[in-house]
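Exercise 7.
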Amino acid sequence: MSDRIFSSTTAATGTDGAVAQAVRAALCHLPGVDNAASSHLVGVASDMAIMSLLALSAYLMLLVGRVSFAQQAFFGVGAYSAGVATAMFDVPLPLALAGGMALGALCSWLLALPTLRLSGLNYAVATLAFGEMARIAFSWARWQVQTEDGPVGPLGQEGFRNIRWLLENDLAPEVFMLVTVAVALGVVALLMLSERTRLGLNLRMLGQDDLLCASQGVPVERLRLWAAAAAGALAALGGGLYAHRTTYIEPALFDPMLGVHAVGYALLGGLGTALGPLLGVVLDLGLLDATRIVPGWRMVIFGGLVALFLRWRPRGLLDEVAVYHLRRAVAATRIPRP
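Solution. The predicted structure, written as C-alpha coordinates, is:
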Protein backbone atom coordinates (compact mmCIF):
# COMPACT_ATOMS: atom_id res chain seq x y z
CA MET A 1 0.00 0.00 0.00
CA SER A 2 2.87 2.39 0.74
CA ASP A 3 3.89 2.45 -2.94
CA ARG A 4 0.70 4.35 -3.75
CA ILE A 5 2.16 7.50 -2.28
CA PHE A 6 4.90 7.49 -4.90
CA SER A 7 2.80 6.68 -7.96
CA SER A 8 -0.35 8.72 -7.40
CA THR A 9 -1.16 11.49 -9.90
CA THR A 10 -2.83 14.74 -9.21
CA ALA A 11 -6.46 15.32 -10.01
CA ALA A 12 -6.00 19.06 -10.19
CA THR A 13 -6.49 20.66 -13.59
CA GLY A 14 -6.56 24.35 -12.74
CA THR A 15 -6.75 27.04 -15.42
CA ASP A 16 -3.53 27.64 -17.31
CA GLY A 17 -1.91 30.91 -16.39
CA ALA A 18 1.13 32.43 -17.94
CA VAL A 19 3.42 30.65 -15.48
CA ALA A 20 1.86 27.25 -16.16
CA GLN A 21 2.13 27.73 -19.90
CA ALA A 22 5.76 28.80 -19.59
CA VAL A 23 6.63 25.73 -17.51
CA ARG A 24 4.86 23.40 -19.93
CA ALA A 25 6.54 25.02 -22.94
CA ALA A 26 9.97 24.73 -21.30
CA LEU A 27 9.44 21.05 -20.52
CA CYS A 28 8.18 20.31 -24.03
CA HIS A 29 11.45 21.69 -25.43
CA LEU A 30 13.35 18.89 -23.69
CA PRO A 31 14.34 15.98 -25.96
CA GLY A 32 11.61 13.35 -26.23
CA VAL A 33 9.14 15.24 -24.03
CA ASP A 34 5.64 15.82 -25.35
CA ASN A 35 2.62 17.31 -23.57
CA ALA A 36 1.75 14.06 -21.77
CA ALA A 37 5.34 13.52 -20.68
CA SER A 38 5.55 17.10 -19.41
CA SER A 39 2.53 16.47 -17.17
CA HIS A 40 4.26 13.37 -15.82
CA LEU A 41 7.45 15.34 -15.12
CA VAL A 42 5.45 17.99 -13.28
CA GLY A 43 3.94 15.29 -11.08
CA VAL A 44 7.32 13.67 -10.43
CA ALA A 45 8.89 17.01 -9.50
CA SER A 46 6.04 17.74 -7.08
CA ASP A 47 6.39 14.30 -5.48
CA MET A 48 10.14 14.71 -5.15
CA ALA A 49 9.77 18.09 -3.44
CA ILE A 50 7.13 16.77 -1.04
CA MET A 51 9.11 13.63 -0.20
CA SER A 52 12.20 15.79 0.30
CA LEU A 53 10.43 17.56 3.17
CA LEU A 54 9.69 14.21 4.79
CA ALA A 55 13.29 13.09 4.23
CA LEU A 56 14.59 16.33 5.75
CA SER A 57 12.51 15.69 8.87
CA ALA A 58 14.15 12.26 9.25
CA TYR A 59 17.53 13.91 8.56
CA LEU A 60 17.04 16.30 11.47
CA MET A 61 16.37 13.39 13.81
CA LEU A 62 19.40 11.48 12.52
CA LEU A 63 21.49 14.59 13.00
CA VAL A 64 20.85 14.48 16.76
CA GLY A 65 21.51 10.74 16.93
CA ARG A 66 17.94 9.42 16.75
CA VAL A 67 16.53 6.99 14.17
CA SER A 68 12.82 7.85 14.04
CA PHE A 69 10.25 5.66 12.33
CA ALA A 70 7.42 8.01 13.29
CA GLN A 71 7.89 10.76 10.71
CA GLN A 72 5.11 9.29 8.55
CA ALA A 73 2.74 9.90 11.47
CA PHE A 74 3.50 13.64 11.47
CA PHE A 75 3.22 13.59 7.67
CA GLY A 76 -0.29 12.20 8.19
CA VAL A 77 -1.10 14.76 10.87
CA GLY A 78 -0.23 17.54 8.45
CA ALA A 79 -2.21 15.90 5.64
CA TYR A 80 -5.38 15.43 7.67
CA SER A 81 -5.26 18.75 9.51
CA ALA A 82 -4.60 20.82 6.37
CA GLY A 83 -7.26 18.85 4.48
CA VAL A 84 -9.83 19.42 7.22
CA ALA A 85 -9.01 23.13 7.33
CA THR A 86 -9.38 23.81 3.59
CA ALA A 87 -12.04 21.27 2.57
CA MET A 88 -14.33 21.56 5.58
CA PHE A 89 -13.83 25.13 6.80
CA ASP A 90 -12.60 27.03 3.71
CA VAL A 91 -9.35 28.10 5.36
CA PRO A 92 -6.75 29.45 2.89
CA LEU A 93 -4.07 26.90 2.07
CA PRO A 94 -1.11 28.85 3.56
CA LEU A 95 -2.91 29.14 6.91
CA ALA A 96 -3.93 25.48 6.76
CA LEU A 97 -0.33 24.44 6.15
CA ALA A 98 0.88 26.64 9.00
CA GLY A 99 -1.70 25.10 11.33
CA GLY A 100 -0.68 21.61 10.23
CA MET A 101 2.97 22.42 10.90
CA ALA A 102 2.12 23.66 14.40
CA LEU A 103 0.12 20.51 15.13
CA GLY A 104 2.86 18.28 13.72
CA ALA A 105 5.47 20.06 15.84
CA LEU A 106 3.31 19.66 18.94
CA CYS A 107 2.74 15.94 18.35
CA SER A 108 6.45 15.36 17.73
CA TRP A 109 7.38 17.33 20.85
CA LEU A 110 4.91 15.31 22.94
CA LEU A 111 6.44 12.08 21.60
CA ALA A 112 9.95 13.32 22.35
CA LEU A 113 9.15 14.10 25.99
CA PRO A 114 8.68 10.51 27.27
CA THR A 115 11.39 9.12 24.98
CA LEU A 116 14.19 11.50 25.96
CA ARG A 117 15.99 8.80 27.93
CA LEU A 118 15.70 6.21 25.17
CA SER A 119 18.28 5.65 22.45
CA GLY A 120 19.24 3.18 19.75
CA LEU A 121 16.90 0.27 19.16
CA ASN A 122 14.64 1.19 22.09
CA TYR A 123 13.98 4.64 20.65
CA ALA A 124 13.42 3.27 17.13
CA VAL A 125 10.87 0.73 18.40
CA ALA A 126 9.07 3.38 20.46
CA THR A 127 8.71 5.66 17.45
CA LEU A 128 7.57 2.76 15.28
CA ALA A 129 4.85 1.96 17.83
CA PHE A 130 3.76 5.59 17.88
CA GLY A 131 3.57 5.66 14.10
CA GLU A 132 1.26 2.65 14.10
CA MET A 133 -0.88 4.19 16.85
CA ALA A 134 -1.27 7.31 14.73
CA ARG A 135 -2.22 5.28 11.65
CA ILE A 136 -4.89 3.45 13.65
CA ALA A 137 -6.15 6.78 14.99
CA PHE A 138 -6.50 8.04 11.40
CA SER A 139 -8.59 4.96 10.60
CA TRP A 140 -10.95 5.83 13.47
CA ALA A 141 -11.40 9.45 12.38
CA ARG A 142 -14.94 9.94 11.05
CA TRP A 143 -16.07 13.54 10.83
CA GLN A 144 -17.91 15.25 7.99
CA VAL A 145 -19.61 18.56 7.37
CA GLN A 146 -22.18 19.45 4.74
CA THR A 147 -20.97 21.65 1.89
CA GLU A 148 -22.44 22.80 -1.42
CA ASP A 149 -20.92 19.72 -3.08
CA GLY A 150 -22.16 17.31 -0.41
CA PRO A 151 -20.62 15.90 2.77
CA VAL A 152 -16.85 16.34 3.09
CA GLY A 153 -14.44 14.98 5.67
CA PRO A 154 -12.49 11.91 6.79
CA LEU A 155 -14.36 8.60 6.81
CA GLY A 156 -12.00 6.27 8.62
CA GLN A 157 -10.66 3.47 6.41
CA GLU A 158 -12.58 4.87 3.43
CA GLY A 159 -10.27 7.86 3.43
CA PHE A 160 -10.69 11.59 3.01
CA ARG A 161 -11.88 12.70 -0.43
CA ASN A 162 -12.46 16.01 -2.21
CA ILE A 163 -9.57 18.04 -0.81
CA ARG A 164 -10.08 20.36 -3.74
CA TRP A 165 -8.57 23.69 -2.72
CA LEU A 166 -6.24 23.76 -5.74
CA LEU A 167 -9.09 23.04 -8.14
CA GLU A 168 -11.45 25.54 -6.55
CA ASN A 169 -8.81 28.25 -6.67
CA ASP A 170 -7.69 27.44 -10.23
CA LEU A 171 -4.09 26.71 -9.24
CA ALA A 172 -2.50 24.79 -12.10
CA PRO A 173 -0.33 21.72 -11.37
CA GLU A 174 2.68 23.50 -12.89
CA VAL A 175 2.30 26.42 -10.48
CA PHE A 176 1.83 24.08 -7.53
CA MET A 177 4.97 22.22 -8.59
CA LEU A 178 6.96 25.46 -8.56
CA VAL A 179 5.59 26.26 -5.10
CA THR A 180 6.53 22.87 -3.65
CA VAL A 181 10.00 22.96 -5.19
CA ALA A 182 10.55 26.49 -3.88
CA VAL A 183 9.43 25.44 -0.39
CA ALA A 184 11.73 22.40 -0.37
CA LEU A 185 14.73 24.40 -1.62
CA GLY A 186 13.98 27.15 0.88
CA VAL A 187 14.02 24.64 3.74
CA VAL A 188 17.30 23.20 2.48
CA ALA A 189 18.85 26.67 2.25
CA LEU A 190 17.69 27.49 5.77
CA LEU A 191 19.16 24.26 7.15
CA MET A 192 22.45 24.78 5.32
CA LEU A 193 22.73 28.30 6.71
CA SER A 194 21.97 27.07 10.22
CA GLU A 195 24.71 24.44 9.95
CA ARG A 196 27.29 27.23 10.02
CA THR A 197 25.86 28.68 13.23
CA ARG A 198 26.35 27.68 16.85
CA LEU A 199 23.03 25.85 16.72
CA GLY A 200 24.10 23.72 13.77
CA LEU A 201 27.40 22.83 15.41
CA ASN A 202 25.61 21.86 18.62
CA LEU A 203 23.19 19.63 16.71
CA ARG A 204 26.05 17.74 15.06
CA MET A 205 27.96 17.48 18.31
CA LEU A 206 24.84 16.13 20.02
CA GLY A 207 24.48 13.44 17.37
CA GLN A 208 28.12 12.38 17.71
CA ASP A 209 28.54 12.40 21.50
CA ASP A 210 25.79 13.63 23.82
CA LEU A 211 28.01 13.38 26.92
CA LEU A 212 30.63 15.61 25.33
CA CYS A 213 27.86 17.95 24.23
CA ALA A 214 26.51 18.20 27.79
CA SER A 215 30.01 18.78 29.17
CA GLN A 216 30.28 21.85 26.92
CA GLY A 217 27.25 23.39 28.59
CA VAL A 218 24.79 22.58 25.79
CA PRO A 219 21.23 21.89 27.04
CA VAL A 220 21.01 18.42 25.50
CA GLU A 221 17.41 17.57 26.38
CA ARG A 222 16.07 20.96 25.31
CA LEU A 223 17.96 20.75 22.01
CA ARG A 224 16.57 17.29 21.29
CA LEU A 225 13.03 18.47 22.05
CA TRP A 226 13.31 21.42 19.69
CA ALA A 227 14.91 19.30 16.97
CA ALA A 228 12.02 16.85 17.25
CA ALA A 229 9.49 19.68 17.04
CA ALA A 230 11.17 21.12 13.93
CA ALA A 231 11.27 17.66 12.33
CA GLY A 232 7.57 17.16 13.06
CA ALA A 233 6.74 20.52 11.51
CA LEU A 234 8.67 19.70 8.32
CA ALA A 235 6.96 16.32 7.97
CA ALA A 236 3.54 17.92 8.54
CA LEU A 237 4.28 20.57 5.89
CA GLY A 238 5.03 17.81 3.39
CA GLY A 239 1.84 15.99 4.37
CA GLY A 240 -0.30 19.08 3.89
CA LEU A 241 1.12 19.67 0.43
CA TYR A 242 0.67 16.00 -0.45
CA ALA A 243 -3.01 15.97 0.56
CA HIS A 244 -3.76 18.91 -1.70
CA ARG A 245 -1.78 17.52 -4.60
CA THR A 246 -3.64 14.20 -4.65
CA THR A 247 -7.03 15.46 -3.32
CA TYR A 248 -7.41 12.12 -1.47
CA ILE A 249 -5.71 10.51 1.52
CA GLU A 250 -6.30 7.36 3.54
CA PRO A 251 -4.71 5.83 6.66
CA ALA A 252 -2.93 3.10 4.68
CA LEU A 253 -0.74 5.74 3.02
CA PHE A 254 0.97 6.51 6.32
CA ASP A 255 2.27 3.02 7.06
CA PRO A 256 5.72 2.15 8.49
CA MET A 257 7.28 1.73 5.03
CA LEU A 258 6.84 5.44 4.40
CA GLY A 259 8.84 6.15 7.55
CA VAL A 260 11.48 3.63 6.49
CA HIS A 261 11.77 5.39 3.13
CA ALA A 262 12.22 8.75 4.86
CA VAL A 263 15.11 7.41 6.93
CA GLY A 264 16.50 5.59 3.89
CA TYR A 265 16.56 8.77 1.80
CA ALA A 266 18.60 10.57 4.45
CA LEU A 267 21.00 7.66 4.98
CA LEU A 268 21.47 7.10 1.26
CA GLY A 269 21.98 10.74 0.32
CA GLY A 270 24.19 11.54 3.27
CA LEU A 271 24.18 13.24 6.66
CA GLY A 272 26.98 15.69 5.93
CA THR A 273 24.67 18.34 4.49
CA ALA A 274 20.98 19.10 4.06
CA LEU A 275 21.43 18.35 0.36
CA GLY A 276 21.90 14.67 1.26
CA PRO A 277 18.20 13.81 1.74
CA LEU A 278 17.40 15.52 -1.56
CA LEU A 279 19.99 13.36 -3.28
CA GLY A 280 18.40 10.25 -1.76
CA VAL A 281 14.97 11.28 -3.04
CA VAL A 282 16.36 11.99 -6.51
CA LEU A 283 18.04 8.58 -6.67
CA ASP A 284 14.84 6.78 -5.73
CA LEU A 285 11.93 8.79 -7.14
CA GLY A 286 13.80 10.64 -9.86
CA LEU A 287 15.88 7.75 -11.20
CA LEU A 288 14.42 4.37 -10.23
CA ASP A 289 10.70 5.21 -10.07
CA ALA A 290 10.16 7.99 -12.60
CA THR A 291 12.29 6.50 -15.38
CA ARG A 292 11.04 2.92 -14.83
CA ILE A 293 14.50 1.60 -15.72
CA VAL A 294 13.88 -1.60 -13.79
CA PRO A 295 10.10 -1.88 -13.31
CA GLY A 296 9.10 -4.10 -10.42
CA TRP A 297 12.57 -4.04 -8.87
CA ARG A 298 12.64 -0.49 -7.51
CA MET A 299 12.01 -1.43 -3.88
CA VAL A 300 14.57 -4.24 -4.03
CA ILE A 301 17.24 -1.99 -5.54
CA PHE A 302 16.51 0.85 -3.12
CA GLY A 303 16.68 -1.48 -0.11
CA GLY A 304 19.88 -3.04 -1.43
CA LEU A 305 21.48 0.38 -1.89
CA VAL A 306 20.61 1.39 1.66
CA ALA A 307 22.03 -1.90 3.01
CA LEU A 308 25.27 -1.47 1.04
CA PHE A 309 25.68 2.10 2.17
CA LEU A 310 25.11 1.15 5.80
CA ARG A 311 28.05 -1.24 5.41
CA TRP A 312 30.48 0.85 3.35
CA ARG A 313 29.31 4.46 3.85
CA PRO A 314 27.21 4.50 7.02
CA ARG A 315 26.63 8.26 6.79
CA GLY A 316 25.68 8.25 3.09
CA LEU A 317 27.08 9.61 -0.15
CA LEU A 318 27.42 13.19 1.08
CA ASP A 319 28.87 12.44 4.50
CA GLU A 320 30.97 14.92 6.47
CA VAL A 321 34.23 13.81 4.82
CA ALA A 322 32.80 14.11 1.31
CA VAL A 323 31.35 17.55 2.07
CA TYR A 324 34.71 18.69 3.47
CA HIS A 325 36.57 17.62 0.32
CA LEU A 326 33.92 19.17 -1.93
CA ARG A 327 34.20 22.48 -0.12
CA ARG A 328 37.98 22.41 -0.42
CA ALA A 329 37.71 21.64 -4.14
CA VAL A 330 35.30 24.53 -4.65
CA ALA A 331 37.52 26.87 -2.66
CA ALA A 332 40.55 25.86 -4.74
CA THR A 333 38.78 26.84 -7.97
CA ARG A 334 38.06 30.37 -6.82
CA ILE A 335 40.14 33.06 -8.48
CA PRO A 336 42.25 34.81 -5.83
CA ARG A 337 41.69 38.52 -5.47
CA PRO A 338 44.56 40.75 -6.62
